[in-house]
């Protein structure tokens, strides 16, 4: 039997409607959610991401500003800009697009962003609050994954979730969020012995390694939910995920396509985080 598709675009659309409602409520108090995006250098993919973020702001009626800095910008200058944005009341969220040029230390940049404006959820205080279960701005892709599971009616509590990949941006926070939802969580990585055997035990698989079609059909327990975070460009120019989609969909119970799965959720959760930061700034819960 073929798996049910988890339509990231449709779920993201649903969440955007909720964000619009929240934005109207804030407007009654004279507050417009504001996002500042900073791009250093001219990486073509980053330029597209930044443009999409500005467009999402426009569509949702957010205030936005984009700062495009030359790739040789000294780190101190970038930190000064962040400091100004931290102090600017119209800006509720700050995102510095990765990757950064080699001479800039990413950690110094993340640490410089005010915790309450860290809409990427990368600041150590937000990561720490996620781990101990306190209120935090959550990393966007993992937060999107949880929304997709919940809104598709996929049970998490008591289920075995296997996360493939241990990045700070996706794997680790996804594992923590699944744990917070009471899953039993296993995190796999490049040194994991018998990866297929571990994945076979999963009710929920999250693949976030950036290796095209790594996850095969015979790794999947029949009926499992498979969330594919990978976006890989094949030699023929087509996009594919970390999951062998056509084969795995015949075994899984649910599956996210690439594109149109996790991708549309990430930017939507960024907007949700910006609204949350604006609500907090306005004294709303
Ligand atoms: N580059 C690719 N994805 C991301 C992201 O989620 N946040 C930031 N800041 N940069 C990125």
Key features?
alpha/beta; 10 helices; 3-stranded parallel beta sheet; 285 residues; Rossmann fold; 2 domains; globular; 6-stranded parallel beta sheet; binds guanine; 11 strands
Structure explained in plain terms:
The structure is a single chain. The chain has 285 residues and is α/β, with parallel strands linked by helices. The chain folds into two domains: 28-115, Rossmann fold, CATH 3.40.50.10860; 139-264, Rossmann fold. It has helices spanning 8-27, 44-60, 75-87, 106-112, 124-132, 140-151, 171-180, 195-199, 245-248, 263-281; strands at 4-5, 34-40, 63-69, 93-96, 160-164, 184-188, 204-207, 225-228, 232-233, 239-240, 254-255. The strands form three sheets. A six-stranded parallel sheet has the order 1-11-8-7-5-6. Strands 3-2-4 form a three-stranded parallel sheet, with helices on both faces. Helix 7 links the parallel strand 5 and strand 6 (184-188). Helix 1 (8-27) packs parallel to helix 10. The longest helix is centred in the N-terminal third of the chain and has 20 residues, at 8-27. The protein is globular and about 50 Å long. The mean pLDDT is 97. Guanine (GUN) binds next to strand 4. Residues 95-98, 120, 140 line the site of guanine (GUN).
């Amino acid at each position: 039997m073929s798996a049910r598709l988890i339509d990231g675009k449709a779920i993201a659309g649903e969440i955007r409607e909720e964000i619009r409602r929240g934005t109207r409520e804030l407007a009654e108090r004279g507050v417009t959610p504001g996002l500042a995006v900073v791009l250093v250098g001219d990486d073509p993919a980053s330029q597209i991401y930044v443009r999409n973020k500005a467009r999402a702001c426009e569509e949702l009626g957010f205030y936005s500003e984009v700062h495009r800095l030359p790739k040789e910008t000294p780190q101190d200058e970038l930190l000064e800009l962040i400091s100004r944005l931290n102090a600017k009341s119209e800006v509720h969220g700050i995102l510095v697009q990765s990757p950064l040029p080699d001479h800039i230390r990413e950690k110094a940049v993340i640490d410089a962003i005010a915790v309450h404006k860290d809409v990427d959820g990368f600041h150590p205080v937000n990561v720490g609050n996620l781990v101990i279960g306190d209120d935090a701005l959550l990393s966007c892709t993992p937060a999107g994954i949880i929304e997709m599971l919940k809104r598709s009616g996929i049970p998490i509590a008591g289920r075995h979730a296997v996360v493939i990949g241990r990045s700070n941006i996706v794997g680790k926070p996804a594992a923590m969020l699944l744990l917070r939802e009471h899953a039993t969580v296993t995190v796999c990585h490049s040194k994991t012995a018998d990866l297929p055997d571990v994945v076979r035990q999963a009710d929920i698989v999250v693949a976030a390694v950036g290796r095209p079609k790594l996850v095969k059909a015979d790794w999947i327990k029949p009926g499992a939910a498979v969330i594919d975070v990978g976006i890989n460009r094949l030699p023929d120019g087509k996009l594919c995920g970390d999951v062998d989609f056509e084969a795995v969909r015949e075994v899984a119970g649910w599956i996210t396509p690439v594109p149109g799965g996790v991708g549309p959720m990430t930017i939507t959760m960024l907007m949700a985080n910006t609204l949350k930061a604006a609500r907090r700034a306005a004294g709303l819960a």
